[in-house]
Amino acid sequence: MSSIEELITGTAVGIKASDGVVLAAEKRVAYGFTMFSRSGKKVFKVNDNIGIASIGILADMQVLTKIAKAYMSLYALDTRTRPSIRSTAKLLSYVLFSNRVLPYFVEVLVGGVDDEGPHLFIMDSLGSLIEDDYAAVGTGTKLAIAILESNYRQGMSVKEARDLAIKAINQSISRDPVSGDGIDILTITNNSSTEETIPLQPLRL
């Protein structure tokens, strides 16, 4: 693997539902095939209506989350309105592109619900920005996206999206050696956001 591939490991997924967005990621922290932790946090709440899921270097994820939290809090104070998901994604896209010479080693999903409804955006480490209904990033992408493409449908509920996200992450955990050790989930609707952790289920032989 190249040095970038060794640093951007793990699996995260995002799914847009009719009434919200679900972001999920596994908890293993690994660089190359060396595991450093079983309890990494890769899903972050920006505010009550916006969340981030990311894979890569934990420090870079945390810095980007702090930037998003700071700017979106200022925006809310200045305008007395909640920020849009697109504005958050564009902010992070600009930060990533501005640092392309010494890049953040991350791939990022930004999701949430604003006055226009649910949105999900995908970014690579250079800030390329795409909006979609569902996405997977990281070394387990091929495994997770196969589940998402086979099971996603327009108009599904947040509960159905949560179940699908768990299924997709579990598929990546079962085959990708640098993904594992449980799942963090952030569920965002128009009225609330909920964080939860699901422990890794033992394999049944």
What would you note in describing this structure?
Helix 4 runs antiparallel to helix 5 (158-175). The longest helix has 22 residues, at 58-79. Strands 10-1-2-11-12 form a 5-stranded antiparallel β-sheet, with helices on one face. The N and C termini lie far apart (32 Å). The protein has 205 residues and is α+β, with helices and mostly antiparallel strands. It has helices at 3-7, 58-79, 85-98, 141-151, 158-175; strands at residues 11-16, 20-26, 29-31, 34-37, 43-47, 50-56, 106-114, 117-123, 129-131, 134-138, 183-189, 193-198. The chain contains 5 helices and 12 strands.
Average residue-wise pLDDT: 90
- Gyration radius (Cα, Å) is 16 Å
Which structural category fits the helices and strands? Answer: alpha+beta
Helix content: 25-40%
Number of helices: 5
Largest sheet composition: 5 strands, antiparallel
pLDDT < 50 runs, ≥5 residues:
none
In total, how many beta strands?
12
User: Order of strands side by side in the largest beta sheet?
Assistant: 10-1-2-11-12
> What is the terminal separation in angstroms?
32 Å
Q: What fraction of the residues are assigned to beta strands by DSSP?
A: 25-35%
Question: Shape, please?
Answer: globular
Short description:
The protein is α+β, with helices and mostly antiparallel strands and 205 residues long. 34% of the residues lie in helices and 34% in strands.
Q: How do the helices and strands line up, and which of them pair or pack?
A:
Blueprint: H1 3-7, E1 11-16, E2 20-26, E3 29-31, E4 34-37, E5 43-47, E6 50-56, H2 58-79, H3 85-98, E7 106-114, E8 117-123, E9 129-131, E10 134-138, H4 141-151, H5 158-175, E11 183-189, E12 193-198
Antiparallel strand pairs: 1-2, 1-10, 2-11, 3-4, 5-6, 6-7, 7-8, 8-9, 11-12
